[in-house]
Design goal:
This protein is mainly α. Helices cover 61% and strands 9% of the residues. It has 6 helices and 2 strands; from the N terminus they run αααββααα. β1 and β2 form a beta hairpin.
Length: 130
């Protein structure tokens, strides 16, 4: 299946947990996922199965069958999901303004001095490439 190019990737909390297990393992069965995310709130096997089928229907996972067991692997990369989720969040919460996002993070003490220097370096590098 071709890689999903849609930047509008939306994942709920459980969907993101499932995708993280699949990305970390390379491939996973429903049992693998259940065992990996059963810390804290413990979703039922049937819930995870349903969510994995929905992720496959969205084009985020695919499966192959071995020994009568579905083995799921990611169609989208972790980086594609990060970019898509971040873009969605910036659009919905900050009206598409990355400056408002950064401003909010800085104002609420979410950015350390070290991270602030790194951001400045990234901006400087980007400006030099223009």
């Amino acid at each position: 299946m071709p890689r999903k190019e849609n930047p509008e990737i939306r994942l709920g909390r459980l969907e993101l947990q499932i995708m993280t297990v699949v990305w970390d393992r390379g491939e996973a069965t429903v049992h693998d996922v259940k065992d990996s995310i059963s810390k804290g709130r413990k979703p039922a096997y049937s819930t995870i199965l349903t969510m994995m089928r929905k992720l496959e229907a969205k084009g985020y996972l695919e499966h192959d069958v071995r020994d009568r067991t579905y083995h799921y692997s990611a169609v989208i990369s972790r980086q594609q999901a990060e970019h898509g989720l971040l873009g969605d969040m910036v659009q919905r919460l900050f009206g598409g303004s990355a400056a408002l996002l950064v401003s909010s993070l800085v104002e609420h003490g979410q950015v350390s001095e070290k991270e602030l220097r790194e951001i400045k370096t990234l901006i400087g590098n980007k400006e030099r490439k223009k």
